[in-house]
Amino acid sequence: MARITSAITLVACHDCDLLHRLPSLKEGEVACCLRCGAVLARRRSDPVVRCAALTLSALLLFVIVNFFPLLGLNLGGRETSMTLLEGALELGGHGMWDVVALVFFTSWMFPLLHFLVLLYVLFPLALGRVVPGALTMFKAAGLFSPWGMIGVYMLGVFVAIVKLADLATVIPGMAVYALGGLLVCSTAAGHALDHDAVWKQIGRTKG
After folding, report:
1. Which terminal Cβ of the chain has fewer Cβ within 10 Å, N or C?
2. Distances (CA, A) of 199 to 46, 47, 109, 173, 206
3. Domain check: are 14 and 87 in the same one?
4. What's the sign of the alpha-carbon dihedral 195, 113, 67, 102?
């Protein structure tokens, strides 16, 4: 455990709200609240490499989710299937273009930008290099992240399967399994991402 003695950053404990001054942690060290013992910060080993690998995995799964069939339906011997974007465009044919725009931005554009920007910064950083505009791009990745609603669409897929099961035979497509893997990888990448370590490594490498 790291003793909280030297001041670098003020952080409030998320359990008891006690303010602490965090020290600079070494790899593997954990800073805990002096009052309740809750974990305030954790310095993971190789956070840049781990997050870059998970983000690349998420990007590959993202491609599968958007270009392979999501669900197939077999009704009376007639089988049909469509991708996520094809399903959204089908709604556009009924005049629901606001829904089409929402699906496009939250399930395609913002997640894609988030993955690409992170990889643009993290992969060179893992090799000891800093790309032009790394600080700006890393900040932009944080802005894109909240708009990517992968978990919402995972829930929507489950709801659709349950509701359609009584009407037709539902055939999960490859994209359904990829969507589950994408949710796991993107969540793990977010957990592995150590913003403080990235900022410091960018500054250290540039210097």
Report:
1. C
2. 14, 12, 25, 40, 11
3. no
4. positive
33-42, 135-144, 186-195 — which is least confidently predicted?
33-42
Instruction: For residues 88 and 152, state if they share a domain.
Output: yes
Same domain, 16 and 58: no
| 74-79 contacts, C-beta under 8 A, 24 or more apart | 74/168, 74/169, 74/171, 75/167, 75/168, 75/169, 79/171
Q: Residue 44 contacts by C-beta under 8 Å, 6 or more apart in sequence? A: 27, 28, 50, 192, 194, 197
Which residue spans within the chain are E strands per DSSP?
Answer: 9-12, 19-22, 30-32, 39-42, 71-75, 78-82, 169-172
Question: Distance between CA atoms of 59 and 94, rounded to whole angstroms?
Answer: 31
Same domain, 30 and 55: no
- The residue written with tokens 């491609």 in the block is 63
pLDDT, tens only, 124-138: 988 888 888 888 898
Predicted TM-score (pTM) of the model is 0.71
Domain that holds residue 152: 47-206
Residues 70 and 15 in one domain: no
Asked if pLDDT for residue 36 goes beyond 70, the answer is: yes
- DSSP annotation of 115 reads H
Q: Are 35 and 56 in the same domain?
A: no
Kind of pairing between the strands at 71-75 and 169-172: antiparallel
- 34 and 134, same domain (yes or no): no
Closest CA to 60 of 143, 179, 172: 179
User: What are the backbone angles phi and psi of residue 73, rounded to the nearest 5°?
Assistant: -125, 135
